[in-house]
Amino acid sequence: xxxxxxxxxxxxxxxxxxxxxxxxxxxxxxxxxxxxxxxxxxxxxxxxxxxxxxxxxxxxxxxxxxxxxxxxxxxxxxxxxxxxxxxxxxxxxxxxxxxxxxxxxxxxxxxxxxxxxxxxxxxxxxxxxxxxxxxxxxxxxxxxxxx
Length: 147
Prior knowledge:
Helices cover 18% and strands 31% of the residues. It is of the alpha+beta class and 147 residues long.
């Protein structure tokens, strides 16, 4: 007769794995019913004068792109609609993502938000965030408190 040791951690991990599979299946089914969400690829660069953000948005019309700055956050959002094929055509497979997207980034304190510029060329959105010419405050003055 062979004795098997009970490993409660192993049972817990197996249970967690099954719960994750159920949740993943539920979420993917919901995204199919509502339309897909996708996340564009983004590159961020820093030069001596500015920060530059480049987002890949192929197939997204300029009219479907929104750029906002709120509370020191840069928010890029929009939608890539699914292409409507003529009635005589039917999709055999859809691999290109479509639907709504949103990316947000916390801006460094030295960005001049009033001088931000953006351009959209060949499916690439480039946002130019110039650095402020004012010296950032890195020190705090200490005041003696007396009662």
